[in-house]
Design goal:
Strand order of the largest sheet: 1-2-7-6-5-8-4-3-13-14
Radius of gyration: 29 Å
Number of helices: 18
Oligomer: single chain
Structural class: alpha+beta
Low-confidence stretches: 182-188, 544-551, 584-588
Distance between the termini: 96 Å
C-alpha cells in the first residue's frame, strides 16, 4: 500500500499566504513559506538573545497574556526535558494574524494600525489587547524566543467560531557572522530566519480558541541547564573520588526534581530519594506553590538566616520562582496595597521633592490602597492563571507573619510613593512621553530569599529584570540596610521605550530610566532617615530599661561592629548556636545553627573548673567572631559546611597555646 506524498505549495507574499492557508485541508495540502526579517539584529533572535531557557517560557506566557488568555498550562517531562508544551485559551490566531507573524519578525502588529484588523489589539487603542489589557509584547519576537530552547517547534492555533484550526511547524536557522554582513553595495538585504510548513485541520469544537506551542528536540545546552547538569556533574565527580581528603564540600540542592544519567533515561537517587520537593505529589497546585514559598522562609527559622535560591533549589525550581516574579500574577498571600497594616507594620508616604522627607501615614481601618490612593492594577487585570507542571504560580513575596529577629524594630516599615512626570521641557521624541508609576519600599530586618533584596520594576504588571540588588546603582554605602529592603515599582505609563530588546535590562541613559533612578535614590535616603530615627528612639528606651545590667566585653565588640555596618542603632547581630548531636536548638528567627561536634574539638578526660571556664570564654569569642564575619557578609559567602570548617579553624587558632 503506497503512502500519498503531501502536495507542498510555496508562497512568500502575505496575501497569497493567507489565501493558501485557508485553502489547505489537512496534511495532504501543505503550505510552505520562509521566515524573513529586514534587520540583522532581529535575525540574531533566532540565535537566542535571551540569557536563560526560562526567558523563552516567560515570553510565551506574555504572549498568552496579550491574547487575553485566562489560563496558561505549561507541561514538561522533567527531569528529562525532551518535550515542553505551552497551551493557552487566548484569542488564538487566524490565518491572517499567523501570516503576518511569520513574514514580519520584529514587525509586530501589536501597537500598530494593523493590530485591530488582525484581532490582536483593541479596535480603538493599539496599546491594549482586544479585552483591554495593557500589552506586554512590543516588537514581535516573543514567539521566536523559543530558539533559546529549540530550533524546531509546532504552533497549533484556533480562533473562536472557526471550524478549522491552523497548524504550523517551524524550523529556525542560525547564522554565521559573515552571513549577516551587508551586501557589497551597502544596501539592506532580506534575512531568511527559517522554514515553515502550514496546514489546516478540521476542529472538533467550533467555539474553542487558543494557541498551543509544542517544543521538541530541545537543544543539548538548554536541556543540560534545565537538568542542572553542572551541579550534578560536580557532585558525581566528587562522589567518585576515592581519596577522602580530595573530596570537596559540595552539597546537592536541598530541593530538586531529580537527576538523570547523561542519556536522560535513568533516574538517579540522591540521599536515597529520586526527587526532593517541598510539596507532596498530589497536592493541589495552589497548595504546592505555597509550600514552595514557605520552604524558603522555613530556612530562616531553622539555621540559615540568609537563604539563597541557588543553594536551596535546582535550576528548574529557581526558574519557576523567577517566572512567578516576572509575569502578571496575584501575590501568594495578597498584594501589599490591599492589606490593612494596623498592628503589624508602620507606613510612610515618600516625598517627590529633592530634599523631602517621608511622612507617617495613618493606616488604621482601611487597606493601604485606600489610605494612599493607589491604583496598581494587578488585581484588576482579570483572571489569569499560570500552571507549571504541579504548581499554580503566584508572586512569591510575603509581607505578613515573618520570623522574629534580633532587631529592636520588630515591625516592618512600608514606604509608599507615586509620581507622574510630564517632561514638559523636552520634546516628546526625546523624552519618550509622560512617565507614571507607584512604588513601595518594604523594610524588614530579614528579607528572604537573598534574591528579593533589591528593586524590581514592573511595566503593566510584567518584569524581565528581577530584583536589582544595587537599587539602580545606588552609591551610598549602606549595604546592611539595603539587604533589608524589597522594592517594587509599578509603571503604568512610559518606560517601555527604555526597555532593551531582551526585556531583561534598561537603557540607563533614557530620560525615564534616569528619572526613576533619581526618584528611587531619594526614596532610599528618606527611608534611611526615618528608620534610623525610629531605631534610635527604640534603642534609647531599651537602654533606660536595662540600666545596671552588665554586658560582656566580647559581646559588646560584636554588637558595635554589627550596628556600625548596619548603620542602625537598633540592630543586634544574629545569634550563633552550637547544637549537640540529636539536640534541637530553639533559636530566634535570625540565627546561625551549627553542629557542635563539627566546630569544637572533642575534650577527653576530666576537666577542671578552670578549663571549663576557659572553654566557655573561647566559645563566646568564637561566636563573636562569627557575628563579626556575618556583619561584613563574609559568613554567607560560603556554604554551610564550609562555614563550619572556617569556624573550626578559627577555634583551633584561639585554642592553640602561646609561646
Amino acid at each position: 500500500m503506497s503512502t500519498q506524498q503531501p502536495q507542498i505549495t510555496e508562497v512568500h507574499d502575505e496575501l497569497g499566504l493567507v489565501a493558501s492557508i485557508r485553502a489547505s485541508h489537512g496534511t495532504e495540502n501543505i503550505v510552505q513559506t520562509t521566515l524573513r526579517t529586514d534587520e540583522r539584529v532581529i535575525a540574531r533572535v533566532t540565535d537566542g538573545i535571551y540569557r536563560q531557557p526560562g526567558s523563552a517560557l516567560r515570553e510565551l506566557i506574555s504572549n498568552a497574556y496579550d491574547a487575553d488568555a485566562t489560563r496558561v498550562v505549561i507541561n514538561t517531562d522533567a527531569p528529562r526535558f525532551e518535550r515542553i508544551s505551552v497551551e493557552d485559551d487566548g484569542h488564538g490566531m487566524g490565518p491572517e494574524a499567523l501570516a503576518h507573524l511569520l513574514l514580519h519578525i520584529g514587525g509586530s502588529a501589536k501597537r500598530s494600525e494593523a493590530g485591530p484588523g488582525l484581532g490582536v489589539t483593541a479596535p480603538h487603542d493599539p496599546m491594549c489587547s482586544p479585552g483591554g489589557r495593557r500589552l506586554i509584547g512590543k516588537i514581535g519576537i516573543g514567539l521566536f524566543s523559543v530558539s533559546q530552547l529549540t530550533h524546531t517547534f509546532q504552533i497549533i492555533t484556533k480562533v473562536k467560531d472557526d471550524d478549522h484550526r491552523t497548524v504550523a511547524t517551524v524550523a529556525l536557522r542560525q547564522y554565521a557572522d559573515e552571513e549577516l554582513a551587508l551586501s557589497q553595495d551597502g544596501e539592506k538585504r532580506k534575512f531568511e530566519s527559517g522554514k515553515v510548513n502550514i496546514w489546516r485541520e478540521k476542529a472538533a469544537d467550533v467555539n474553542s480558541h487558543g494557541t498551543t506551542i509544542i517544543l521538541t528536540s530541545i537543544r543539548p545546552q538548554a536541556r543540560d541547564t534545565l537538568r542542572s547538569r553542572e551541579i550534578w556533574n560536580a557532585i558525581e565527580q566528587n562522589e567518585a573520588q576515592s581519596n577522602a581528603e580530595e573530596k570537596q564540600a559540595i552539597e546537592p540542592p536541598q530541593f530538586h526534581i531529580g537527576r538523570v544519567d547523561p542519556s536522560g533515561e535513568l533516574l538517579k537517587k540522591t540521599a536515597g530519594k529520586t526527587w526532593a520537593l517541598p510539596w507532596e505529589k498530589g497536592d493541589p497546585p495552589t497548595d504546592a506553590f505555597a509550600k514552595l514559598v514557605q520552604c524558603v522562609w522555613d530556612e530562616v527559622e531553622r539555621s540559615t538566616p540568609n537563604p539563597q535560591l541557588d543553594r536551596i533549589f535546582d535550576y528548574y525550581l529557581r526558574m519557576v520562582w523567577q517566572l512567578s516574579l516576572a509575569v502578571p500574577l496575584p501575590y501568594v498571600d495578597g498584594h501589599l496595597f490591599d492589606m490593612d497594616l494596623e498592628g503589624w507594620a508602620e507606613a510612610f508616604t515618600l516625598s517627590n521633592q529633592p530634599k523631602g522627607a517621608a511622612q507617617r501615614l495613618d493606616v488604621a481601618g482601611a487597606p493601604l490602597r485606600d489610605k494612599a490612593g493607589l491604583q496598581d492594577p494587578v488585581g484588576r487585570i482579570g483572571k489569569f492563571d499560570v500552571f507549571f507542571d504541579d504548581l499554580k504560580l503566584a508572586r512569591p513575596l510575603k509581607f505578613k507573619g515573618l520570623p522574629s529577629t534580633n532587631n529592636a524594630l520588630k515591625n516592618p516599615l512600608v514606604f509608599i510613593g507615586k509620581c507622574r512626570e510630564e517632561f514638559k521641557k523636552l520634546p516628546r521624541e526625546l523624552s519618550g512621553g509622560p512617565l507614571a508609576f507607584e512604588a513601595y519600599l518594604f523594610w524588614t530586618p530579614k528579607v528572604a530569599p537573598v534574591e528579593h533584596q533589591g528593586s524590581l520594576i514592573r511595566i503593566h504588571g510584567s518584569s524581565g529584570t528581577l530584583f536589582d540588588s544595587t537599587f539602580m546603582r545606588y552609591q551610598v554605602s549602606e549595604q546592611t540596610r539595603l539587604r533589608q529592603i524589597t522594592c517594587e515599582i509599578f509603571v503604568s505609563e512610559g518606560l517601555d521605550s527604555a526597555l532593551n530588546i531582551d526585556r531583561e535590562s534598561f537603557n540607563n541613559a533614557h530620560p525615564h530610566s534616569v528619572y526613576i533612578t533619581k526618584w528611587l535614590h531619594s526614596a532610599l535616603r528618606q527611608l534611611a532617615s526615618a528608620q534610623k530615627r525610629l531605631a534610635s528612639e527604640v534603642r534609647a528606651h531599651s537602654r533606660d530599661e536595662s540600666k545596671g545590667v552588665a554586658v560582656s566585653e566580647i559581646q559588646r565588640v560584636a554588637s558595635e561592629v554589627w550596628q556600625l555596618e548596619a548603620d542602625d542603632p537598633a540592630a543586634q547581630p544574629p545569634s550563633i548556636e552550637l547544637s549537640s548531636t540529636g539536640k534541637k536548638v530553639e533559636a530566634a528567627g535570625e540565627s546561625y545553627v551549627y553542629s557542635r561536634t563539627a566546630v569544637l574539638p572533642l575534650r577527653t578526660g576530666a576537666q577542671t573548673a578552670k578549663t571549663k571556664a576557659r572553654d566557655s570564654i573561647l566559645e563566646e569569642k568564637l561566636k563573636a567572631i562569627a557575628q563579626v564575619l556575618a556583619s561584613f557578609g563574609l559568613l554567607d559567602a560560603v556554604p554551610k559546611r564550609k562555614q563550619e570548617k572556617l569556624l573550626k579553624a578559627i577555634y583551633e587558632i584561639l585554642d592553640a597555646p602561646g609561646e
